[in-house]
Structure formats: structure tokens, C-alpha cells
From TrEMBL:
Annotated GO biological process: fatty acid metabolic process
Keywords: Fatty acid metabolism, Ligase, Lipid metabolism
Organism: Phaeovibrio sulfidiphilus
The keyword Glycoprotein is annotated on this UniProt entry: no
AMP-binding enzyme C-terminal domain sequence ranges: 459-533
Protein name (Swiss-Prot/TrEMBL): 3-methylmercaptopropionyl-CoA ligase
Keyword Iron-sulfur belongs to the record: no
The family this protein is said to belong to: Belongs to the ATP-dependent AMP-binding enzyme family.
AMP-dependent synthetase/ligase domain ranges (all copies): 30-409
Lineage: Bacteria, Pseudomonadati, Pseudomonadota, Alphaproteobacteria, Rhodospirillales
Catalytic activity: 3-(methylsulfanyl)propanoate + ATP + CoA = 3-(methylsulfanyl)propanoyl-CoA + AMP + diphosphate
């Protein structure tokens, strides 16, 4: 030891097996299975498992993967819905030392093949529903050593076929439940690989470590003040940032995972009623689907349901609808590179006596840093100086701390760029309010620069959303010979509603300055990701294409 660092608190006080172990979320299921073995862990249609059973199945999976030759730092990819098998993979795959790669089920075969190849997957576990895309991807990849395993979920009754060497249940049968889940040697070891959306070029592989997964899961419980034994409905796809780390968090609190293959309002209300769901997470568009149902569909639900939303700043109409049905809604904020949500719009006691408009304004903020993260800060992207807390000066949201990714897989240049200056940059433009809460104004790529003036696409969208006929709105920049760019609006109308372009424009004139008015309006179905986000890059492509041929 360096003499300069020696002290009475270092000499003879080294780490050892008795006083130190790497942080890992694998410890969460081990403890819960020991303390609450008979409590329900997973419910999926007619199937249900206790925590003891889920732990045993996870150990069988880890053992079976070892027998297939899968070991430390190797990749197991999965193409799965929110099913029991997906939950088990969050423990069984890292439990054999491997890295779990959850793939977006809505991707095209070419992109799936790229992910399998780039991540050097040894095994692909795929649901029968996605067999067509999986089969094509495997053919494109042309890796004879890739082992394909089929999940044949009895709750899925649609088309699809088995394409693998064996079924998931047959794989589990080869595993030995006496073999323990293997804790990492180092908490910095990789636990998961998640790919970004890849709106331009190939997606980047975001690598998570055991320490971040553990702290992220624990932070979710603390930030949300989630009680023990919650009943959690899986509306967020588990392939998205590992379900915002909730597969591990629910295990830590011995909760119940209510599985859901796809978002459907009637099914969701039935599950909330039948299982007394207490918590769920979703993008604003999913909350909107849940809230805007006939009153009779909500009958029999009188308990409080708490929900997190993220992915985009929420339209006022969604907040009003959720308030009307009595759900407790909290906004969170984060990225794939930050294990999902790391910021939260933490509730202040003053809101208890606030009027509706004040509560509404507060709810639109992205909030403050949650537990386990060193900092979220709005900073000047050039100088890295923090912006003043004036609610006016825009900067870029940046992150620092344990809940930032290890980096991008096999892409040191992108990793170095991401961490330049000692901060991870989000690409989101925001202001800091006088009370320290962050409020997003736009994505940097979504700001519309018209005649030298910056226009927030979110501000224009919010104006359009206040029209009673509008269901969904998205605004992007359209090229303009005179102004450079002008706002272009894409709108989905509510069922049975009709409105003209001029009526929308007249409505916007009441809320927007003239230069912020949309110059083009299209009424059509908007493209979405699997998590409900509007795919603005596709709308920009449409606008540019129309401009080219216009």
C-alpha cells in the first residue's frame, strides 16, 4: 500500500469474503425465495408460480445453459413477450455468468440478425409468436452454432411455429435445480445488453453491469415508495431497458408479476379488477388507452392504482384523464443508457393543498435525480456549465453516476464520445425550474429552427392536444424555402370525431404565436415503437419525401 494512503482506517481493514460481496440483483430472488417461498411470484393466464418455484426454474435455466456450453461473458438473446419465461431469464441467464440480451419483438429480421451477430449470441430463446422474424433472422445470420430454443406459451393462440432445437420446458428439464445461481466475481461484470432504437444506421449495444442493475432496482422501490408485496402489471415490455429494472425490483419486494402479452384496455382493466393490481408503468399513450374507456369497463375497481409514465412529456389530456379516474400518476425520466428511469417528479407536500392547474403543471416536469444516481443536471452543451434555475435558459440534460451504462459494445469511439467531459449527454433540451426540477422543452433533434427562431415541437403539440377532437399529435420540422423550417403536424383523431385543417389552425391561433403555427397538417395513423413512443424520425422522413416530390 502507498505510504501516503496508509491510515488507521486502512491498515488491517481490507475487504474479504466475510465483509464484502459484489452487488447483484441475483441476491434479490434468493432472499425472497428463502423468506417468502409460498407467496405468488408470477401469474400468467392459467399459469402461476410461487417465488420458490420461480427461483427453482431460474436455477434450472442457469444449469441447462451451462450444459449447452454457455458461460461467463457470453450472450443469451431472447425474443419474448412479457411472460414467466422472460422473468426467469432475468435471473437464470446472468445466473450462469452470461449476459442477457432482450430484443425488441417488433424489429425486422435484418435488425434482429444484426443484433444476434453483433452481440455474438450463443443461444436465442424465442416465443412462437415471433417465429417468422426469428427464423428469417437466423437464416440471415447463418451461424450454425447458434442454439435456438422455443417458448410455446399456452396463452398464445395465434400463428407461429417451433423453429428451435427444443422447447423451453424441455431445456429446463435438463437443468439441475441444486446448482446455485452464480454471483459475479466483480459487480462491474456485464449483466445485460440492450440495443438502442437505431433510427439511423445500426443500433448501438448498451451494456449494463450487476452493480447498476442492483442499485437501479432498489432505487425504483425507494423513489416510488413501493410497499412490500406489490401487485405489478407488466404493461412496459421487459425487452425495454430490462423492464426499467422492475423484474429485479419486484423480486426484491416479493411482489406479484401479472404478465401481459400485449396492451389491450379491456384486458388491463380485467386484470386490475381480478388481481387488485397496485402498480404499473407505461408510456403516455398507454395511459391514455387505459383512461379513455367507457365507465362500465372500470366498474369494480375502487382501490388506488399507482402508475409511472415516461418516454415523452405527457399531453395535458392524459393527465386530466388519469386524474379523473383517480389513478396516482408520477412522471419518471431516463434513457436506455441509464437503465431506464433515473429521474422522478418527486411529489412535494405542498401539492396536497395545490389547485388542479398547479398540480397539472407540476406533473409535466421530468423532476429531480432519483436515489443511486450522483447527478442529473441541465448544462450548456459547449461549456458544460449548469444553466441558471430560472425556468427559461435551455441546456442539455446530462447524467453522472452508478446508473449510467458501462458503454457501447464494441464501439469505443461512441463510448468515448458519450462520456466526453465526464457527463453522459441525453440529447434532451430542458430548463431548470426555480425549485430545481427539470422540465424538458424538446429533443435537440426535434427543435424547429424557423427564421432563426427556436420552436419547441412539444409546445405546438400541447396546443393541438387541447382540441377535443385530437387523440394523438406529433410535430416535426418541414423544410421551407423562406424560413428554413416550419412546424408540420401529424394528427390522429378520436373515434367518431371529425375536424378540418382550418379548425385546427383556428384553435392553435388561440394558443400559439404566429411563427409557431403549423404550416402543414396531416390526418393519419402515427407510427409507434413497441413501447408506445411516436417514431418522429419516420414522420421526418415522410415530410422530406413529400417535400422532394412536392
Amino acid at each position: 500500500m502507498n505510504a501516503e494512503t496508509e491510515s488507521i482506517y486502512t491498515t488491517g481493514l481490507q475487504k474479504n469474503r466475510a465483509n464484502h460481496s459484489p452487488m447483484t440483483p441475483l441476491s434479490m430472488i434468493e432472499r425472497t425465495a428463502e423468506v417468502f417461498p409460498d407467496l405468488p411470484a408470477v401469474i400468467h393466464g392459467s399459469r402461476s408460480f410461487t417465488w420458490e418455484q420461480t427461483y427453482e426454474r431460474s436455477r434450472r435455466l442457469a444449469s441447462a445453459l451451462r450444459k449447452l456450453g454457455v458461460g461467463k461473458h457470453q450472450t443469451v438473446s431472447v425474443l419474448l413477450s412479457n411472460t414467466p419465461e422472460m422473468i426467469e431469464c432475468h435471473f437464470g441467464v446472468p445466473g450462469c455468468g452470461a449476459v442477457l440480451n432482450t430484443i425488441n419483438t417488433r424489429l425486422d429480421p435484418e435488425t434482429i440478425a444484426f443484433i444476434l451477430g453483433h452481440g455474438e449470441a450463443r443461444v436465442l430463446i424465442t416465443d412462437r409468436e415471433f417465429s417468422s422474424a426469428a427464423e428469417q433472422a437466423v437464416r440471415i445470420l447463418h451461424n450454425p452454432n447458434l442454439v435456438v430454443i422455443d417458448v410455446d406459451d399456452p396463452e398464445y393462440t395465434g400463428e407461429g411455429k417451433r423453429i428451435g432445437r427444443m422447447t423451453y420446458e424441455e431445456l429446463l428439464a435438463t437443468g439441475d435445480p441444486r446448482e446455485p445461481l452464480e454471483a459475479p466475481d466483480d459487480e462491474w461484470d456485464a449483466i445485460a445488453l440492450n440495443y438502442t432504437s437505431g433510427t439511423t444506421g445500426n443500433p448501438k449495444g448498451v451494456v449494463y453491469h450487476h452493480r447498476g442493475a442492483y442499485l437501479g432496482a432498489m432505487a425504483q422501490l425507494v423513489n416510488w415508495a413501493m410497499p412490500h408485496h406489490p401487485v405489478y402489471l407488466w404493461t412496459v415490455p421487459m425487452f425495454h431497458c430490462n423492464g426499467w429494472t422492475f423484474p429485479w425490483a419486484i423480486a426484491a419486494h416479493a411482489g406479484v408479476n401479472i404478465c401481459l402479452r400485449r396492451v389491450d384496455a379491456a384486458t388491463i382493466w380485467d386484470l386490475i379488477r381480478r388481481h387488485r393490481v397496485t402498480h404499473y408503468c407505461a408510456a403516455p399513450i398507454v395511459h391514455k388507452t387505459i383512461a379513455e374507456v367507457p365507465d362500465e369497463m372500470r366498474e369494480g375497481v375502487s382501490h388506488t392504482v399507482r402508475a409511472l409514465f415516461g418516454g415523452a412529456p405527457p399531453p395535458r389530456s392524459v393527465l386530466v384523464a388519469m386524474e379523473r379516474i383517480g389513478f396516482e400518476l408520477t412522471q419518471i425520466y431516463g434513457l436506455t443508457e441509464t437503465y431506464g428511469p433515473v429521474g422522478i417528479c418527486a411529489r412535494h407536500p405542498r401539492l396536497a393543498t395545490a389547485d388542479f392547474e398547479e398540480r397539472l403543471e407540476f406533473a409535466t416536469r421530468q423532476g429531480v435525480r432519483g436515489q443511486a444516481l450522483d447527478a442529473i443536471s441541465v448544462r450548456d452543451p459547449l461549456t458544460l456549465d449548469p444553466v441558471p434555475w430560472d425556468g427559461k435558459t435551455m441546456g442539455e440534460i446530462m447524467f453522472r453516476g452508478n446508473l449510467v451504462m458501462k458503454g457501447y459494445l464494441k464501439n469505443p469511439t461512441a463510448t468515448d464520445d458519450a462520456f466526453e467531459g465526464g457527463w453522459f449527454r441525453s440529447g434532451d433540451l430542458a430548463v431548470t425550474m426555480p425549485d430545481g426540477y427539470i422540465h424538458i422543452r424538446d429533443r435537440s433533434k426535434d427543435v424547429i429552427i424557423s427564421g432563426g427562431e427556436n420552436i419547441s415541437s412539444i409546445e405546438v403539440e400541447n396546443a393541438i392536444y387541447t382540441h377535443p377532437a385530437v387523440s394523438i399529435a406529433a410535430v416535426v420540422a418541414a423544410p421551407d424555402e423562406k424560413w428554413g423550417e416550419t412546424p408540420c403536424a401529424f394528427i390522429e383523431l378520436r373515434p367518431g370525431m371529425e375536424v378540418t385543417e382550418e379548425e385546427i389552425l383556428e384553435h392553435c391561433r388561440q394558443h400559439l404565436a404566429g411563427y409557431k403555427m403549423p404550416k402543414q397538417i396531416y390526418f393519419e395513423t402515427l407510427p409507434r415503437t413497441a413501447t408506445g413512443k411516436i417514431q418522429k424520425y419516420m414522420l421526418r422522413q415522410q415530410v422530406n419525401s413529400r417535400a422532394s416530390f412536392g
